[in-house]
Every structure is written in C-alpha cells, then in structure tokens.
Amino acid sequence: MGILSKIFSLLRGTATEAGQAIVDRNATTILDQEIRDAQTASGQSKQALTKLMADQKIATDKLNEKNAKRNEYEGYVAKLIAQGNQDLARETAGKVATLEGEIAADQSALTNLKNTVDKLHATIRTADTRIESLQQQINQVKSTESVLKAQASIASSYSGQNTKLRTALDSLDRIKQRQLEQSAQIDAANALEHESGESDLSAKLAAAGMLPGATSADAVMARVQATLSPIPLAAVTQQKDPAAALNAPATGVRSDS
C-alpha cells in the first residue's frame, strides 16, 4: 500500500511538474488570455454599472416627483384648513402622509442603490487600474523576452564568429610562421652564396698577393732563391748535361805533368 501511495504521489508530482513546465513555456500567452478575460469581466461590470446608474436616475426622478406631489398636497392642506374645510383637509393630509411613507422607502432604496453604484464604480476603477498595470508589465515582459532572445541570438552568432575568427587567426599565424621560415631559409641561402663568392674571390686575391699577409707562389720562390748561394755557371751546365760534365776536365784541379 505504501509503494502504491508513493507511485501515485510520483505520478501527481510528475504531472504537476509537467503542467508547471507547460505553464512556464506559455506564461505570456496565459497572461494575455487572463488579461482578455479580466477585460471582458470589466466590460460586463461596466454594463451592469450603466444599468444601475440608469435605475438610480429613474429612482431619483420618481423620488423628486413624489417630493413635488407631497409639497403640492401640503399646500392644499394648508389652504383647506384656512378655508375651514377640515374633512377635505384631513383627506388630503392622508395623501401627504402616504406620499411621505413612499418617499422614505424610495429614499432608502435610492441610498442603497447609490452605495451599490459607488462601490461597483470603485471596483471597476480598481480593476481597470490593475488590468492596465498588468498589461504594462506583460508588455515589459514581452519586450524583455524579445531583447533576451535577440541578445541570445547575437551571443550565439558572436560565439560562432569568434570561433571562425579564431580559426582564421590561427591559419593566419601559421601562414606568417611559414613565411618567416621561408624568408629565413632564403636569407641563409643568400648568405651562404655570398660567403662562397667572397671565399673564391679572397682565394684569388690571396694567390695574387693582393691581400695583407697573403703570400703568392712566386713570392715564395723568390724568397727561397734569395737565401741560396750563387751557383757557378758550370755547375748549372753540369746539372743540365751530366755526360759533358764527365768528359770535361775538372775545374780548379792542378796537373802534375
């Protein structure tokens, strides 16, 4: 029994939550309908008030007529008494008394009717004020809801734009980095080419003995020859022709014969 009770409570709670969710999703629509219902009720109350005010006017007119009749008959009573016609004066006084009774009753009814009209008029005025205030609040809620939807749409669009912008910026950064790397490679290649050209030129200038501290092959040969003793011409000839050197007499050797 306890389980069934809990299940029933669960079903009721679920139904309540579902109903509340429906109400929340359609709150403005429900409020609009309630406003229309209140305006309809106010219109009906105004119609009833109009009828009561008409009845009040009719009752007031009748009361005024009876007061006029009473005053008229009172004048007759005074004249009849002055003439000494007591019987007719008494009869006329009876009519005045009847009118005064009716006037008192009509006055009481008219007072009650006037109070009802005043209360209904105040109620309608209060209801109209509340309806107007509620209508303004509903319009404000609708405007706020529209603004929130617009802001949500803008935020969503802005978020998407930010994602696209971030992607574009990342791509741009990668392109810039690649360009920097390519530029560095080109600069390095140019530097290597320049250094290679300068090395070739420096080597040629050094070989020609143009650079400070550079020594050419001819300069080395001249320096070495300058350090050697002068070589006799015969020695040079012998070095050039070894056979002739063997047949020729030795220079500077004295003969014993």
TrEMBL record:
It comes from Pseudolysobacter antarcticus. Residues 117-151 form a coiled coil. Belongs to the PspA/Vipp/IM30 family. It comes from the Bacteria. Keywords: Coiled coil. This is PspA/IM30 family protein. The keyword Cell membrane does not apply.
